[in-house]
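Team,

Forwarding the record for the chain on the shared tracking sheet. I've put the sequence and predicted structure together so nobody has to dig through attachments.
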Amino acid sequence: MLAIACGDGASSRSPAKSVATGVVTGRVASSPTDTAAPTPSQGPTASAGVSPTEPVSTTPPLASATSGVPSAAETAPPTPTRMVPPTPTPAKATPTPTQPAQYHTVRAGDTLYDISRKYGVSVDALAAANGLTSDAPLAVGQRLRIPAAGEVGALKLPPPGQTLTTPQERPLAQLAPDVVAFLRQRRGATAAAIYLPRTNTLYTYNSGARFAMASTVKVPIMATQLARAYAANPNAVQSGTDLLAPMITISDNDAATNLLAAVGGPPAVTAELRARGVAATTINPEAWGLSTTTAPDMALLMRSLYYGERLNPRLRDVAFRLMSGIVTEQRWGVPAGLPASSTVAFKGGWLPVQRGWLVHQMGVAVIDDEPVIFAYFNSEQPTFEYGKQTLRRSMELLSAREEKR
């Protein structure tokens, strides 16, 4: 399995031949957890295990003239329509009882870390729920509130047990014509998918375009590991591996390579995606960074995680705590385009290839109390900074419409 570096977590050393020539050489830096995003002049090298002569083909990943052309509905002149469809088909909810508050009484030797592991919550979440700092000393007999499932910082998740129905699919121009107009005038190939839970509607632009995933493929790997933990123990509160945190929060490429092998390789990830109704994604058996997907596919995967399919509430919390905890150096693009009052859980990926940069982000944002699931995929961006601006402005425009709703 070749692990093509996705910019995130990779060395800034120049390879013998750059990715722009179609050949990747070299290894990641000795510290695989380098969190600094590369500048446009610092093309990341390939991850450990890449053959010195392995060609990096950009034909499948980049939106082509045949696969990436918007449909007639998508290319029609955008006309504003009301935000709520006339006949929405929301997902049907199964009533669930209110979860009672849970508490832990501190015993001799207890630490926040020990307690967090016992209940399957993060140290930060446990500390925040009790008005403490993460290194606060504890007193014997002290009573601590355990954050409830679905209480992931400021990001509130829906009750578990909902039955998901096939979403309506409509052109993104019906929801946000200004976003579509902006994407059309950007250089390179762009695609977007926005899912609104309140109306069970998936809005798409350039829905058939396929892109190399770069490090966004780490989300399907994470979903596979969490589903395995759930299958092994339906009451599991932990992911069962220490690789998830570095793979998601700092985008460690070596962690992704090792975890992909541990979950059963590309066939296992593919099987998990298909079980979640994600049908157009292909996991590359030779280089996971060159796996291919579409924007709608990744929006549907985020929808599946958001509603906790194939997981229990605690394991769903694990996924969203990790995606809420992306390091500061990688919180550009969509997070930078959101209003200050918004919250976001996301994963990005970036990679220089033959005809420019791949710059992607996918996740869940809460805009003016409205949950919005998004997937933005962009290829052939002239520079890394240009790609980040494409993401940031796309979300700024979408946020402005949601706030006016």
